[in-house]
Task: inverse folding
């Protein structure tokens, strides 16, 4: 059974300029997905819809069989969906452990011994104890991305959404980060959805959904 399902999803900013139209996608636990497409195809918009930050102007998004519009949106975002941002969005004055702990507190989910849990999660993304105690600005880009992934895992969400998570990384680090996402899906049964323009990333996932640019289609017709 699909954990997340898009039924005839469409989105327009002003009722006229349609960005997405009639999308029917399904996402399951235990798999890594890539959403690809040219600039302007609506990848970021779709990520906002999947995370519950934006509502579709057409169709329904079902989480575990329930329409996201009809459930507590804050609970959905803070307990079931973890987001990894391209620019990391970590607090630079805190160290790695403190960033992960802060996310646990913000979720409102009861988590025993947050410090130990944070260290455990950072270990899962291949950061040793020395690195976990460093301030964010003392870490490399790849290390910061690992912290961002651990933070997204801090409240044990079912879904991990990642926005261009390898866009600022070198090839070797990109492969390492993708290995982490694959482990999360295949070994911990997470549903991992990655928005990316990278063919290399698309080649490393279980399934690819490609968005066509409606703007480009409109120009061709004209």
Result:
């Amino acid at each position: 059974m699909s954990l997340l399902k898009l039924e005839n999803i469409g989105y327009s900013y002003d009722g006229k300029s349609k960005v997405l139209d009639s999308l029917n996608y399904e996402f399951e636990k235990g798999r890594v997905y890539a959403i690809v497409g040219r600039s302007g195809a609506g990848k970021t918009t779709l990520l906002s819809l999947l995370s519950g930050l934006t509502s579709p102007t057409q169709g329904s998004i079902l989480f575990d069989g329930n329409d996201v519009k009809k459930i507590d949106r804050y609970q959905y975002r803070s307990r079931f969906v973890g987001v990894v941002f391209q620019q990391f969005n970590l607090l630079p004055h805190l160290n790695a452990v403190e960033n992960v702990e802060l996310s646990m507190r913000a979720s409102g989910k009861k988590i025993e011994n947050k410090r130990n849990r944070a260290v455990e999660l950072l270990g899962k993304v291949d950061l040793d104890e020395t690195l976990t105690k460093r301030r964010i600005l003392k870490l490399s880009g790849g290390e910061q991305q690992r912290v961002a992934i651990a933070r997204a895992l801090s409240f044990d969400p079912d879904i991990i959404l990642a926005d261009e998570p390898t866009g600022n990384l070198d090839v070797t680090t990109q492969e390492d980060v993708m290995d982490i996402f694959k482990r999360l899906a295949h070994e911990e049964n997470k549903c991992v959805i990655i928005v990316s323009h990278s063919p290399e990333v698309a080649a490393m996932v279980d399934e690819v959904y490609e968005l066509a640019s409606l703007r480009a289609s409109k120009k061709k017709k004209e």
